[in-house]
Amino acid sequence: MTRRWSIARQLFALQALVVTLLVAVCTIGAVLLARRDARNAAIGEVTAVAETIAHTPAVIGALGAADPTRVLQPYAETTRLATGTDFIVVMAPDRTRYTHPSPDLIGRPFAGTVAGALAGGTVVEEYHGSLGDSWRAVVPIRAQTGTIVGLVAVGITTAAINRALMAQFPAVAAGTGAALLLAAAGSGLLSRRLRRQTHGLGPAEMTRMYEYYDAVLHAVREGLVVVGRDGRVELINDEARRLLGAPAAGPADLPAEVAGLIAERHPMVDEPVLAGERILVVSRRETRFEGRTLGTVLTLRDHTELRQLTGELDSVRGLTEALRAQAHEAANRLHTVLTLVELGQPEEAVRLGTEELALAQQLTDQVVGAVREPALAALLLGKSAQAGERGIELTVDPASHLDGSALPSRDLLTVAGNLIDNALEAVTAGPAPRRVRVLVRQDGDEVLVQVSDTGPGLTADQAAAAFRRGWSTKPGPGRGVGLSLVRQVAERYGGSYRIDQATGHGAVLTVRLPVPA
Question: Is pLDDT of 145 > 80?
Answer without folding.
Answer: yes
